[in-house]
Amino acid sequence: MKYVQKILLATLGFLVASCSSTGLVVEKYDSKTGVYEKRVYTKFYNASEWVEEGKLGLEVWVDHEKKVIPVVHQAQQALGLLGPGDVEASGLVTLYFVNLDTNDKVVHVTGITSSSPRSGVTLELPIQIQLKSRSHTQLVVGRVPISNYGTYIDVVIEFSVNGVKHSRKLTAKRLTEIEMAQYSGRDGHPPYPWFSSPYYPFNPPLTQHY
After folding, report:
1. CA–CA separation, 65 and 53 (whole Å)
2. 27 in a domain, yes or no?
3. Mean residue pLDDT across the chain
4. CB 3.0 to 4.6 Å from 56: which of 46, 52, 113, 170, for a disulfide?
């Protein structure tokens, strides 16, 4: 009996670890050139843009969320048993505001929509936050429906800064493992304009408000 319990516990541990798999592997072969390409995507989508050039930057991160068990999913795929829900997933949307200005700013986020035609958006809006001067501020706004096999997401963000309304449409690209290492690796940093001269290296350093 104890042996059976150990097997069940070990199996349960494997399933829990497996359920967080949200990566995507795309393989292509060009018969004309003989070139084989394999891209391993992470669960992260990212885009960035100036709101006020040189003063306020906006980063959008979307975390792909989909509960799957790889072995079972592969078996269902091989047998053609995957249903319509297989192509559906959700994305956790997080905004980062980079305030390079010497003045504080009040930001009021009023709406976010994604390119998915599906409903089921769960957003904690509207939200008002204060951006301290020389700060990098995180704001988790909720979830939007996305495609389980997509490599980009169009996101429209409606917000105001000190009472001035803004609307930004950004295309968040799904990062590959190689790109993710370039973003967060020891010798790398994100390719945002505020990570380039004359803004970077940040002097004085930015504070973080999470």
Report:
1. 32
2. no
3. 79
4. 52
Phi, psi of 7 (to 5 degrees): -65, -45
CB 43 within 8 A of CB 52: no
Q: Answer whether residue 54 shows pLDDT above 80.
A: yes
Closest CA to 60 of 197, 182, 154, 194: 154
Strand partners, 88: 147
What is the CATH number for 204? 2.60.40
pLDDT level of residue 139 (50, 70, 90 thresholds)? very high
DSSP result, 64-124: EE--B-HHHHHHHHHHT---GGGGEEEEEEEEEEEE-SSS-EEEEEEEEEES------EE-
Q: Which helix (H) or strand (E) holds 175?
A: strand 164-176
Q: Using CA atoms in the order 177, 183, 187, 193, what is the torsion angle rounded to 10 degrees?
A: 150
CA–CA dist 189, 49 (Å, integer): 16
Range of the domain at 199: 43-66+88-209
Torsion of CA 182, 186, 192, 197, to 10 degrees: -130
Report whether pLDDT(137) > 90.
yes
Closest of 17, 37, 13 to residue 27, by C-alpha: 37
Question: What is the residue type of 201?
Answer: P
Residue 76 is assigned to a structural domain of this protein: no
On whether residue 108 sits in a domain, the answer given is yes
Q: How far is CA 200 from the centre of its chain?
A: 23
Look at the chain and report how many structural domains it folds into: 1
Q: Is residue 3 included in any domain, yes or no?
A: no
